[in-house]
Amino acid sequence: MTATLEAPPLETRGLHVSFGRAAVLRDVNLVVPARTAVGLVGESGSGKSTLGKTVVGINKPRAGQVLVHGEDVFAVGRRRRAAMRRQVQYIPQDPFSSLSPRRTVGQTLAEALDPLRARPADHEEAIVGALDQVRLDPGAMAKYPHQFSGGQRQRIAIARALIVGPQLVIADEITSALDVSVQAEILKLLRTLEETIEASMLFISHNLAVVQALCEHVVVMYQGVIVEQGRVDDVYRNPQHDYTRRLLASVPGSKGFRLD
Ligand SMILES: Nc1ncnc2c1ncn2[C@@H]1O[C@H](COP(=O)(O)OP(=O)(O)OP(=O)(O)O)[C@@H](O)[C@H]1O
Ligand SMILES: [Mg+2]
Question: Is the Cβ atom of 89 under 6 angstroms away from ligand 1?
């Protein structure tokens, strides 16, 4: 440990989450280092979304800590917590229900940037900049979500996350509701963004090959427990846990995936 080593944008310690009597996350210790893309994989129901939602405050943990840059979000006051949480943005899977149908794209982005003064005209430069990052033209500002395709809506959701200048973006299966060709476009966009923005990414996915193409690290969850984490190439080449081995064995032609 050197004094210059900065605290990671996200760390969870001993996180437990239950719904009623069912324990969904058990003793989850996750680290997302600065400027790093971390893939989060595991079968359906293993707790991936629950983990992402707990980090951003949608779910409440029964025990444990969520640290943003080393600061415990539950140990600070409400205003500080809200400011810390803005540094972590969650993009949900479904681009059809995640955008308010009654707001223009400009209003949605203005509200993300500044909830108290959500007037697009006051933030036009930032909004146009965020739209440009996701390859949408400024005309999108005045339109409503129903005027866009699923892929375009997911771009808007990405722009809404980026406009606040987050330290970490949690992308929860953000391409799984899209057609295959549109998925590839969004994944390419994400890879470009990885190179141009400073933020880390927690990329939740079922697709191990996509995780390998986009992420440096991978975290494997099984029944609410992290069973393995490390550099993607190391974990894929030399899985330590039996579940990881089974997961890798279940992917047909997993070595063949390319983004370009
Ligand atoms: N709000 C909730 N209330 C009750 N149970 C829930 C709630 N959210 C999730 N669960 C349960 O918690 C478990 C983990 O769900 P979660 O959505 O985190 O899994 P996941 O890994 O994201 O799965 P998928 O790959 O299908 O998205 C499941 O058994 C689910 O039914
Ligand atoms: Mg999920």
Answer: no
Q: Is residue 26 lining ligand 1, measured as CB closer than 6 Å?
A: no
Residue-wise pLDDT for 29-65, tens only, equals 999 999 999 999 999 999 999 999 999 989 999 999 9
Specify the ligand 1 atom closest to the Cα of 59.
Answer: 1
CATH number, position 25: 3.40.50.300
The parent domain of residue 128 ranges over 97-164
Within 10 angstroms of residue 179's Cβ, the number of other Cβ atoms is 12
For a mutational test of ligand 1's pocket, the pick from 48, 56, 176, 247, i.e. the residue with the most ligand atoms closer than 8 A to its C-beta, is 48
Number of compact structural domains in the chain? 2
Same domain, 75 and 200: yes
Q: 110 alpha carbon to ligand 2 midpoint, in Å?
A: 28
Two tokens at 40? 């989060």
SS3 (DSSP) at 77: coil
54 lines ligand 1 (CB under 6 A): no
Whether ligand 1 lies within 6 angstroms of the CB of 88 is answered as no
Condensed to tens digits (0 to 9), the pLDDT of residues 76-129 reads 999 998 888 889 999 998 888 889 999 999 999 999 998 888 899 999 999 999
For CA atoms 173, 179, 182, 184, give the dihedral sign. positive
